[in-house]
Structures are given as structure tokens and as C-alpha cells.
Amino acid sequence: MKYSNSSRSNCSTKVVVVVVVVVVVVVVVVVVVVVEIVVRVVAVVEVVVLGVEVVVAVVVAVVEVVALGVEVVVVIVVVVVIVVLVVVVVL
């Protein structure tokens, strides 16, 4: 049985269509996977940034508490010095 040129052309056209469809599906799947990976990486980066913000907030709070403690000590020392000076002057 001999094939005509039109049936060969029709067959090759079907092969091309199938190949194009397969390529399009593969590209779509790859794009979806890449987008999903990017979304997950962004989520991880957000968590890391949040963690850094928490650490910075804790460090700032500790520094503020230490500074407040230093201020209290300075005030106490000044008061003691004033009291000592007053006692020395009075006596």
C-alpha cells in the first residue's frame, strides 16, 4: 500500500503538534515549579528578616535597660556626693 504525500504531510503535522504541546506543557510545569520555589524562598527571607528585627529589638531593649541602670547609678553617686559635701561643710 502506498501513502500519498498528503497523508505523510498530515502525519508529520500531527507529530509537530504533539511535540509543540509537550514542549508547552513542560515549559508551564517548569515555570510553575520555579514560581513555587521563589515564593518559598521569599517566605524564608521574610522569616529571617523578622528574626533579625526581633534580635535588634532585644538588643535595643537591653541597651536601654543598661543605660537606665547607668543613669540610676550616676544619680545615686551624685546624691551621695552632695550629701557628703553638705555634711563636710556643715561639720
Helix content: over 70%
Give the low-pLDDT segments. Answer: none
Number of helices: 1
Strand content: under 5%
Tell me, briefly, the overall form.
rod-shaped
Number of strands: 0
Rounded radius of gyration (Å):
39 Å
Structural class by helix and strand composition: mainly alpha
Mind explaining what this structure looks like?
With 91 residues, the protein is mainly alpha-helical. 95% of the residues lie in helices and 0% in strands. It contains one helix and no strands. The mean pLDDT is 89.
Question: How is this structure best summarized?
Answer:
By secondary structure, the protein is mostly helical. 95% of the residues lie in helices and 0% in strands.
For this entry, give a set of tags:
single chain, mainly alpha, 0% strand, 91 residues
Please describe the topology of this protein.
Layout: H1 5-90
Organism: Elysia marginata
Keywords: Membrane, Transmembrane, Transmembrane helix
Transmembrane segments: 12-35, 41-63, 70-90
